[in-house]
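Figure S7 source data.
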Amino acid sequence: MISMRHVDKHFGELHVLRDITLEIPRGQVVVVLGPSGSGKSTLCRTINRLEPIDSGEIYVDGEQLPEEGRALASLRAEVGMVFQSFNLFSHKTILDNVTLAPTKVRRLSRDEAKKNALALLERVGIAGQKDKYPAQLSGGQQQRVAIARSLAMNPKVMLFDEPTSALDPEMVNEVLDVMVSLAKEGMTMVCVTHEMGFARRAADRVIFMDNGAVVEDSDPESFFTAPKSERAKDFLGKILGH
Ligand SMILES: Nc1ncnc2c1ncn2[C@@H]1O[C@H](COP(=O)(O)OP(=O)(O)OP(=O)(O)O)[C@@H](O)[C@H]1O
Ligand SMILES: [Mg+2]
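Tokens for the predicted magnesium ion complex:
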């Protein structure tokens, strides 16, 4: 579903992605781990071309990422992304946040978009909040709206970049539960998260990055119980140690 071949990227002098080659099959759930600055967010952002790459190739469902224009807009619609900050439209209701892109980009009728949105809000457990504005919701609820909004475009892939790290601890699980159920339904997912419970429960694969490179690529059980590299051991020691 996602194929990256020899992807390199620099920010000026900084070599932020180093020869990344990854094949992610349909339905696979990948957790990306690594120290701060290792390139995890940049990796995600290249997959829907929020960041252009210097060299290499990226394909989503067999199609190479377009450079720009209409083709890029339609690619973006197929690759949903959820960030740490929810980025909801503050002056629009929850329902309108979820129906906006489907009506504008997918050209769904207002009625059809609304029907889909209500089903999605139900699925993420916040149908009762549909007429409120984002500021009236908790962080965990807002993040679930952000997930519903992405799903409303019927994406082939979902990217999550630390979706729970801005949340109060008691709200983390309600967002992770939605992610776990998506994973179970067969969504192809790339998740940057330090939530080890999620990684163990839902991930098929763990990718550990350091300094712009993929250092380890294995199943969660092997990664957590027997990391191969010193860098991964050191990283796990730090995050599991507290
Ligand atoms: N737009 C940018 N311009 C210049 N440098 C950038 C830009 N975005 C990221 N970087 C740098 O690229 C490197 C990788 O950043 P990235 O955000 O991908 O790391 P990360 O692994 O997601 O880190 P964190 O865990 O802190 O989120 C860092 O050194 C960062 O400072
Ligand atoms: Mg990041």
